[in-house]
Write a structure and sequence with these properties.
Distance between the termini: 39 Å
Structural class: alpha+beta
Shape: rod-shaped
Oligomer: single chain
Strand order of the largest sheet: 3-2-1-6-5-4
CATH superfamily of the largest domain: Histidine kinase-like ATPase, C-terminal domain
Strand content: 15-25%
Helix content: 40-55%
Length: about 400
């Protein structure tokens, strides 16, 4: 509710005609204070004011709702106009003029098109004024209608902007849905192709069962990726990635991804070093394999083929660390802040470095971890760290 009230006040303050309306109100009536107020069942808040008599109520200031006549106007939705409180039979003993020392008062309800009561356009003074007449009341009603129309137009504009943002998010999500599948399925498909080529070239040998098991494992991973892409879509919309934690050996998971890439890219060496406990760490192995595969794919794509990609996985104290390092052209410092944003391409054609890094960062975040990057002439290294 508080945020809605703040938005309502801001909406009134954003209407450029309000200062002119308040100035005309004061000139027309000769009164010293005018305001547009947001009035609810329990709040009276000045959205914007013009104060020539030092009444002392700034924009954003509040009066106790029970001390105001607007509290009654909210219920009956009629104009209240008083030329001289002392001579008015209905209001001469009313608590509002007594509380605030008023002699003249006019307040007109601001009603939105859907019938909601927003508040009032009002003016007050400690001296009598000529306000209870058709010309003044008609002008106030015209101004109140104008304010209501501005508020409604702003609401419609804001809704249109929100709808457009939703459409853009859906469109972007659709692109990501397709791109995630294409990006993440590329490596296991390449491993399958590599296995098929080996079987076709060499025929059935003693190594063929190993190749088939690798191909079967890659097929399983592809099926898992298709299922997991829906979770990644939810992550893009802010829902987070669901995890299925499993304490089995993490080394087997990481080593399988390394084996996939060694099969699909035999010309680019990969060195792996594991310092992991045999009982494993409780993680989502499918997700972590996806994250690691994206980091490794990035290193193989952008690293120098004259030097191996180095993988290190270790568990020390209460922290799991997974490093992927490669030699090659360093990442420019200005590109580092946007490195994990999806679909960001630099002038060199890199995918920002792209979709894979975005997915990797989301998976790291879902585990309560993070991915750090360092890039120098000596090496570029991505490090996943996670407290266990």
């Amino acid at each position: 509710m508080e945020e809605e009230l703040k938005a309502d006040i801001a909406a009134v303050q954003a209407i450029p005609a309000i200062p002119s309306i308040l100035d005309v109100v004061c000139r027309l009536t000769g009164m010293g204070f005018a305001a547009v107020a947001r009035v609810t069942e329990d709040r009276w808040i000045a959205c914007q004011v013009l104060d020539h008599v030092s009444f002392g109520l700034p924009a954003g200031g509040e009066l106790k709702i029970e001390t105001t006549i607007c509290n009654e106007i909210r219920d009956h939705r009629e104009v209240v106009a008083i030329d001289n409180v002392a001579e008015d039979a209905k209001y001469c003993n009313h608590h509002t003029p007594i509380t605030y020392g008023l002699q003249s008062y006019i307040s007109v309800p601001i009603i939105l098109a859907d019938g909601r009561f927003f508040g009032t356009l009002c003016a007050i003074d400690s001296k009598p004024a000529k306000v209870d007449n058709p010309a003044t009341i008609g002008t106030f009603k015209l101004f109140a209608d104008l304010i209501a129309q501005h508020l409604e137009a702003n609401d419609k504009l804001r809704q249109a902007q929100d709808d457009l943002l939703d459409e853009r998010q859906i469109s972007e999500l659709r692109e990501q849905f397709v791109a995630v599948l294409g990006h993440d399925l590329r490596n296991p498909i390449a491993a399958l192709n590599g296995g098929v080529d080996r079987l076709l070239r060499g025929g059935w040998t003693e190594n063929s069962p190993t190749v088939l098991r690798m191909m079967k494992s890659s097929l399983n991973r592809m099926a898992g990726l298709v299922e997991n892409v829906m979770d990644l879509a939810r992550a893009r919309l802010g829902g987070g990635i669901n995890l299925q934690l499993d304490p089995r050996s993490l080394q087997d998971t990481i080593d399988h991804v390394v084996s996939e890439f060694r099969t699909s890219q035999p010309d680019h060496p990969i060195e792996a070093e594991y310092l992991l406990p045999p009982s494993g760490v409780s993680v989502d192995h499918q997700r972590l394999a996806q994250m690691f595969a994206n980091l490794l794919a990035n290193a193989l794509t952008h690293g120098s083929k004259d030097h191996p990609v180095v993988v290190k996985a270790a568990f020390a104290g209460d922290e799991l660390t997974l490093e992927v390092a490669n030699r090659g052209i360093p990442i420019p410092p200005e590109k580092l802040p946007g490195l994990f944003q999806p679909f960001k391409r630099g002038k060199d054609g890199r995918e920002g470095l792209g979709l894979g890094l975005y997915i990797a960062a989301e998976i790291a975040k879902s585990h309560g971890g993070e991915i750090l990057v360092s890039s120098t002439e000596a090496e570029t290294k991505f490090t996943f760290k996670m407290k266990v």
